[in-house]
Amino acid sequence: MSKFAQLGLSSQLTKAVEKSGYDSPTPIQEKVIPLMLEGGDIVAIAQTGTGKTAAFVLPILERLKANQHKTKPKHCSTLIIVPTRELAKQIDDNIEKYGAHIYHQRACVVGGVKYPKQIKRLNQGLDILVATPGRLEDHLKSGNLSLDHTETLILDEADQMLDLGFFPAIRRIAKKTPRTRQTVLLSATMPKPIRALAAELLDNPKDVAVAPASTPVERIEQAVMLMEKPEKRPFLVHALENQFRTIIFTRTKHGADQLVKYLSKQKVTASAIHGNKSQNQRQRTLEAFRKGEEHILIATDIAARGIDIPDVSLVVNYDVPTTPEAYVHRIGRTARAGREGRAITLCAPEEQKHLRDIEKLIKVKLPIENVQAGGIDDDGYDPMKAAAKPSGKSSDKSSGKSSGKFETRGARQDNGERRPPKSRRRNDAKKLGAGGYEGKKSGPKKPKPRHRGGVAAADAPGAPRRKKGGNKNAPRGPARRRNNNQQTGRNSEKSAR
User: Fold this and answer.
1) Which parts of 277-347 fold into alpha helices (H)?
2) d(Cα 43, Cα 197) in Å, to the nearest integer?
3) In what order do the strands lie in the sheet with 182-187?
4) Which of 137, 205, 231, 273 makes an SS bond possible with 227, Cβ 3.0 to 4.6 Å?
5) Average pLDDT estimate for 181-202
6) How big is the CA angle at 307 (ends 304 and 311), to the nearest 5 degrees?
7) Which among 128, 132, 153 is positioned nearest to 42, based on CA atoms?
8) DSSP class of residue 75?
9) Closest listed residue to residue 337, CA positions, set 217, 240, 158, 239
10) 345 Cβ partners below 8 Å, 6+ apart?
């Protein structure tokens, strides 16, 4: 009798799990699987890469095997909510792998995918639905899905799901489910303020903590490199030498794209994944990285949540994360399933305050090395090349050699004297007269004579030309010829007079 069978799993599931490479259950699986089969609410905290996904997927499939009843159309028995599309796709793949010998209907509903295919799947009725909050609410509002018969609600990566930005959506979704449901929260971190919010959704939950909250895996070798921001890029190129599979985390999407361009100039191939990429682009990039076709992945925190990519040897925090919990998720992409890994954090002096928060959370003093990369990035800011203040000596731009349309303010005139400022020129103009020059007559300007009278006075020699009204653009075609004929007729009448 296998160890998984001792937890209450059937032979079909034990065969699928052992075929996937699990010889014995992990600590989180040993505690969560029996509790889920009992039907109570659970809050589970475990390090990343310890098998949390299988801990809740296996009991769900075991329950489906015992209760073979068809779900009503537009309903789902089990709802799994995750923060990112990539994590939803990964969980859906695991359900397919573990449930290969158990009949079930499932669907993955995320943003970035067209609605008709998802609506078609929802109309059939689902045993398991994996979804992100935004697209799930869209289908609920449109009437494509009902949660009246949902028996189990699972929130994976609960600390992010219940963060201030996600909690209103989660609360609205939870209100549409029955009160008798089973609710399970799983995550690598669970801050106390977020746990207080989670208490609203759970009924007398059982706590499962395999390791202290927010602690990274012990097999990860961590280091912090202290350097100026312009030195990060050259140091990164040197650190990527002889590395097989590396994930680099940046704080912003724009920063990820710029880093890809810089590495490309250094003849280092890398791909970026972030929220501005389409779902197909993100999926293709992840698949290429997972298969080993590409060895360097640059990502924002979107890939730090539960993405299981094997054999990641190095994780680089190009930007220090602003939240300490994100650091735990980032470095958790390496040293998965009992392997070893390395994590390097490139820290600028202004980012050290975030570093202290991380050390306080994980309760570990990180080793810090002061690094000089030996060169400054060409695109970065170089204080030695900053523009100096203009001096009294003339430069090439302010001398007569300049040949542009614009002249520098305060440039010398041809006689070598500096032109006085505008305010002084105004005062001189008032003293000299209205013209501003000595040779010009001063005094009030004479008004221009107005020509009054009829047509003859207006057409007299010396009279100002009258402005013609109408369209300023000259007409084309027959209208232009007609106007020309009228004008020649008027000229002939004038000459006759």
Assistant:
1) 279-291, 324-331
2) 13
3) 106-109, 126-131, 76-81, 152-156, 182-187, 42-45, 206-209
4) 231
5) 83
6) 105
7) 153
8) B
9) 217
10) 222, 223, 224, 225, 316, 317, 320, 327, 355, 366
Which 3 state secondary structure label does DSSP give 204? coil
In the chain, the N- to C-terminal Cα span, in Å, equals: 125
User: In the numeric block, which tokens belong to residue 435?
Assistant: 């013209």
For 325-359, the pLDDT digits (tens) are 888 888 888 877 667 789 999 999 999 999 999 99
**pLDDT tier at 373, thresholds 50, 70, 90:** very low
Query: 327 with 321: CB under 8 angstroms?
Result: yes
Cβ atoms 91, 156 nearer than 8 A: yes
- To the nearest 10 degrees (0 to 180), the angle between helices 133-142 and 115-123 is 70
Here the tokens at position 93 are 């793949």
Which of 286, 290, 291 has its CA nearest to residue 272?
286
Facing residues of 346 across strands?
225
Q: Would you say 86 and 282 are in contact if contact means Cβ atoms under 8 Å apart?
A: yes
Residues found in the chain: 497
> Strand order in 368-370's β-sheet?
271-273, 296-299, 246-249, 314-317, 341-347, 220-226, 368-370
Distance, in Å, from the CA atom of 364 to the CA atom of 294, rounded to the nearest integer, reads 33
Q: CATH for 220-379, among 3.40.50.150, 3.60.10.10, 3.40.50.300, 3.40.1050.10?
A: 3.40.50.300
Which residue ranges does the chain devote to CATH 3.40.50.300?
A: 3-209, 220-379
* Nearest Cα residue to 62 out of 51, 54, 71: 54
Neighbours of 376 (CB within 10 A): 17
Q: Determine contact, residues 206/179, Cβ cutoff 8 Å.
A: no
pLDDT tops 60 at residue 454: no
- The H-assigned helical ranges of 363-432 are 422-432
**Rounded CA Rg of the chain:** 37
Cα(108)–Cα(200) distance, integer angstroms: 26
pTM, full prediction: 0.64
Residue 131 Cα distances to 28, 69, 179, 192, 488, angstroms: 23, 22, 20, 26, 80
